[in-house]
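Lab meeting notes turned into a lecture example. A postdoc, R.K., suggested we walk through two folding results consecutively so the class can see how the record format repeats. The first protein's sequence and structure tokens come next.
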Amino acid sequence: MVLTLTAAGLSLWISLDPVFLDVGNPILARLAGRPAGPLTIAMLLPAALLTIRWASGRTRSGWQTLAFLLGLMLLAESGWAGLDPAIAAPWLHRTVVVMVTAVLMTLISGLGIPRVIREAAEKGDWLRNISYLPASQTTVRCGACPLFQQPPPASDWRDAARRVAPWFGGLALLSLAAVFIQEAVLYVPGEGAPLALPAVLIVAAALAGLIGASLTFAVLERLDPLGMSDRGRTVYVYAAEVLAALVGLHFWLTVPEWFQLGIVRQYWMLFVLGVAFAGAALGEFFQRRGLPVLAEPLMRTAALLPIAPAIGFWFFLEEEPHIGFAGATPALWLLAGVFYGLLAVTRRSAVYGALSGVVLSVGLCVLWFQLDFQFVDHPQLWLIPFALVVLLAEHLNHDRLTGSQCTALRYIALSVVYVSSSSEYLRSIGESVALPMTLIFLSMAGVLIGVVLRIRSFLYMGSTFLMLVVVTMIKYAAVDQRQTWILWVFCIVLCTAVMATFAVFEKRREGILTAIQRFRTWQR
């Protein structure tokens, strides 16, 4: 083993150091120089396999691990030896080779070898009979020569493969991080990182392989190298989603010209929303198929995706005000509101329903911004949608809240509605007929809702601001327009109404007192 490790270390040196480019016998042609490194590993690997055939116990386990390591080195050094000596960013390309090699070894050890052994055990009776017996009971000697010794159970190769698969996966992730760090450091705006196009595609294919392996480990419990529970295996799905995002980041760092296309630059936010819709649909599909390990991560990620383009719009707004259709119009927010509304219906979730209302309200705010309706000039356009969302959320969650909490939410939301409308109306009284009529409509709506639903807060707030509209309009007509007869008419009508109220009260005292008692039982 010491000799093997020494030779492997020397082969690693030969494959990496450019000084060995012209070293070697010309007769060997392509086998001289740096290719001598992987050739060394190619000779060490069968020697290690023969040694494993004769070993047992911990020695056999150590040689099996070394055989997998030699396989990794063989692939990596072959890639290094084939690189052009004059290639730009040589260490970036070497790291790519390590990452791709680690991904291949992860797939081979985590999926390939266990499947091959399982199929062989199903087809061959001898392997099925001895695969779970101790090595001492499966050894058959023919003479004294150990070359005729029957190999120990094949199942220990499956165990060894599962043992090294997480280490290869960890190496793949580390080398992947190193690749992205180098790409970011070497990135040139408009040109990207100096990575050859075949290497770009190979890295993307390697990431796709990791995505497939992660999803396989999540779905098939028997192939999970870490032996996690059903809930724990959702980590593999989240990892697959992160890897999918890294594929896009990798392309953006290496081939940025692909992202300069008009359709991508203009509509990337809508593409993200499309992915969110697709993720939610797949999550619902897997939920109905009884695969919560896939459904839960997909649904959660889909619920977060609409926030990403929204944040991106506001983050890049100053740098790129022409960011495109999705950012320049409220379509993004309105579609996100529809998305959360669908989630609220399919998942029967009040949280998604409230989130849908909030997002739609933000979409309206973006619309007012695009139409140049300033908040100071039209506060009710900006504030009333949010207040209505609060009222709807309170109504849907009435059973979960205490009486005081419900009352506080109602008064706060109604105050926002009526105060914002009143401020705009009082600031421009006499200049517009639509503003007082809007406040009258809102006040009457509050009164009617309070009567129908028997909620005193709606009735109180609606009556109060209805009276405010009437008094201010009379004051404007009588004082500002000097039409004093309107004030006299109002006073006469008011006195007549008061006298009529007292007369009706004296005549129907019992019925009115009973109605007042019933009114006190209404919700606050």
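The second example is placed directly after the first for contrast:
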Amino acid sequence: MPSSADPATAGRGRLFAVPGLVMVVALVVVPVLALASRTIDSASLFGVWSRPGIVDAIGFTVFETILSTLVTVVLGLAPAWALSHHSMPGHRFALAVTTVPFMLPTVVVGAAFLGLLPGSVERGLVAVVIAHAYFNVAVVIRTVAPVWATIDPMLVAAARNLGASRSRAFVSVTLPLLKPALLSAVAIVGFMCATSYGVVRMLGGGDATLEVEVYRRAILFGDIAGASTLAVAQLVVAAICLFVWVGKDRVVFTESGHRSRRRDHPAARVVAVIATVLTAVPIVALVLSSIRSRGHWTLAGWRLLTSDSDVPGLQVDLPDVLFRSLAFAAIAAAIAVPVGIATSTFSAAARRTILDRVLLLPLGASAVAVGLGIVITYDSAPFDFRSSWWLPPVVHAVVALPFVIRVIQPVQSRIPEHLRSAAATLGASPLRVWATVDVPLISGAIRTAVGLSLAISLGEFGATSFLTRNDSDTLPITVEQLLGRSGDLARLAGHGVAVVLLLVTLVALAFTTRSRRSWSAS
């Protein structure tokens, strides 16, 4: 087992990182470089910005990002405050429920709000902002609540005793202490909203972000050079934003005795209950939308999905699509988890390396840009892989890999070295040491990684929208296609497929609840 105290062993341990490095380079770095090569043409580099729809897409992206981020952070502060009261009954349940939306597929969130919002606002800016707030409020809660819980209540009490009002004490005492967490939440939520694809694709109507405009130009207009230019420009801006954020002070999740002294406030219970109910409302609306249309209960959508349909444009083989999505998810998890474990084994020994950062690149790369880059890169001999059935699940594995690493590496790095040394002293080989010492201690993290990999693959929509063909659609692609068609029957069927996707995703996420360590704490 490599250790930081044994350079020779650690050097050999670099071999563990090779599979992950090859995957990221082949399916992220090379495709992005291929996109960049398409922008060399000056006509594309400078002329694309004057083409119809580009300025509107840029303006809508900036405006909806700012508005969505502001609304999300404001709405997330109340539940973050409530859930910082760890003595509150039902705290763990409320925290788990309010985190669920962030883990749901974007098409499920989009379908839920299509079923919940009235027809006058179900598509457009209002719908996009509401869906983004619902999807990302968990980021604010998970980022701000742990820090809020560590603030000594005596500081606020001292300010109140000196005559400060409740609002003055918050502004002068609590807010400065929360500033690093708030800035991190703003950065993460802003990045998520700016690179949003599935939500805007389903709810944007005539409005489009740069992500959606890249898809439109590449698939609908055949303007590959223009789409490449837009994708590269967005990647550069995203990279700059992430670099600035990483350069700032990082939020540190710490345990503190202040939690035990934080009293259970009655208002915190009310806020937590309201947040929990509001989280469940869109999910309930999604289920009801699959069996209710124009004020009447009906199973027409489910009958369409479970029988051979002769309705033009609505021939959906749900068992086949479900099996394909589950197979892709299983393959993605079978690749991402072992590769992530191997990479974490090296990273835990090497502590922090440039290689470690390279392996986390899929976190910051646009899935749409990666999908377009793969189409461009692997569409001709000798690497004509675009029509290969295995390409989507492998791409899903690359997307899931950083999450697997973030789950396993912190747990593995905290394994006491003397346990490995004792096993080695007793004659165990490095492989035997890893199998008998490391694996039992990281088994909970491995279960979490499996669940996350399955859920990420099941819901992946951005890159998959470029890679699937008519005979290889996944559940998210089928949901978007059905809800994009007109007619009550198509809408009922689309919500039905979204319900199926929701259920299988929740089953996958059930694996993560078996581990006591949450993915977000990494």
